[in-house]
Amino acid sequence: MSPFIAELLGTMLLILLGDGVVANVVLNDTKGNNSGWIVITTAWGLAVFVGVVVAGPYSGAHLNPAVTIALAIAGKFAWASVPIYIAAQLLGACLGAFLVWLMYYDHFQRTNNPGGILAVFCTGPAVRNYKSNIASEIIGAFVLLFTIFYISGAEITPSKTPVGLGSVGAIPVALLVWVIGLSLGGTTGYAINPARDLGPRIMHAILPIKSKGTSDWAYAWIPVIGPVIGAAIAAFLYTNLGH
Known about the structure:
Layout: H1 3-26, H2 37-59, H3 65-73, H4 82-103, H5 105-109, H6 114-121, H7 130-150, E1 155-156, E2 161-162, H8 171-184, H9 194-206, H10 222-241
């Protein structure tokens, strides 16, 4: 289990479960059809938990190019490893989206809404205003990364004896993603992760899906650039505040 494989598998599970819940909610004739935003945001938070549990011990479970870049900017991760991690994350996201298509194949066949089909794979704006949309992604990713910088391992004070939480240590990040979705996800669907959006969007473009429309490449740059900007701001602020 190398860091590359860990990031690939962790991101694959993240997207399988994250895009999977969207498929369950928006595609026709599923058990979870039309169950709503609470279901989607809750599952995305838990999907992060699963990905972090698997990848955490081996790669640190970035699962997100914005996380990788922010940690490198803050001096907590080697720049030389950044391309390797991002490649693993993008490939993992593609694999996860492929598995969602495989899992829900019959329901894609029964769904005639191109917008709903696209939403299974990637994000889109509720109101298309690129300035507002990129601001949403910057703010969401800033909250994600700035908080991640302050999540520390559990310890007994004042002796600072570490408490071995094991997989439970993944819960704070899951809760963080959940609250970002509930509070800040209403504008763009909170990509906050370039690989999470770009990988599945590529799969939407190449997979044979009945009734699919455009992959909306005109919008695709926003969930890539926005999270990176937000992550960079969080890293600069964290490093300059003192800690």
